Amino acid sequence: MITSYERMIAGRYLMPGKGERFIFLVAAISLIAVALGVAALIAVMSVMNGFRAELFDRIQGLNGHAVAQGYGGRLSNWREIVEEARRTPGVTAAIPLVEQPLMATAQSRVEGVLVRGMTIEDIRDTAVIADNVKAGSLDRLKEGAPVAALGVRLAENLGVRVGDRIALISPDGNVTPFGTVPRIVSYEVGAIFEVGVYDYDRAFVLLPLGEAQTLLRLDDDVGMIEITTSNPDKVGEILAPLAAKIGLSALITDWRQLNSALFEALVVEQVVMFWVLSIIILVAVFNILSSLIMLVRAKTRDIAILRTMGASRAALMRIFVTVGTTIGTLGVMLGLVLGFLILAFRQQIVGGVSRLTGTDLWDPSIRYLAELPSKTDPAEVLATVLLTIALSFLATLYPAWKAASTDPVTVLRYE
Fold it and tell me: Do 212 and 273 sit in the same domain of this protein?
């Protein structure tokens, strides 16, 4: 344990003495470098966590944790499969869907769209849609009524608002002597929603299930069943009994198979970013090492006097370890404050830099999400703090050992 006089001496050495302003400047730079490294690590890791969590929540909010797809794109016995899925332990929801890529036209504009049909109850229970309606109301979607809900980007691209009409073009049309004529069905725009994932917002057209079945000529069939489980990480284990029962009717594919490349890339990028940013902290710790070596050389005479007054080698080591660790700890504290400030104002920072540079740093068409997300993991913050303090402590050992090894006889021989 460090004694009170050792703390007092360490505190004196932290402040610049006569002719030691350069050493103090190096120590201050070390502190700032540690703070910047910690802030960068916390901010980047939180953004990466937020990006993965937000993307996962929004994608799974629309697609569930798994889908049971019918062979040939059709499920005739979907009601039995839905009931069987809902009876399976660990399954929280099973929703019948019709989904088909088509073309949409309005205002002399044409866009590729993804038409999805769901029951009215399921549409209202899908929080990622129901909680993000930007215009109109989902109550306008009714069976037997030609009304659709559109993603906000799709509505912008087609130039339509609530109350306007769009036409959906299906290639499965009527056969005539002149060939197959595509079916064109007109729908009123009843609601406009924003999921927050660019690819969905620019393509989704939501219809009541009966309307979608009529449009695609599926009779009473559906294309797939969306399944949500209580634990997405154990979706394979939970759905194994269901897959064995319906194996001849449908094929179950979970979210890891559907989006494996995307989420694996995010994990790899997160690990790489952690180690790259850890190097910044390591460089800052080397600055602490160099400032302490300079301090030991400047305080050689003081160290010799302390030795003659009875200070032990262990006491001198504790003094210089305290000095270096204090610099690292202050840097960590400043870095924590700076990192959380960056996260709190991250969207404003991105907007400001975009305006200064004249470039869109967060283009939703490239980044998937409409806004820069953030999710701070306390375990990662704690790991960053412990890593930085541990490196700061290790950086003090060599200068402290050099100070403790000082021979007072050699230093004071000619005094």
Answer: no
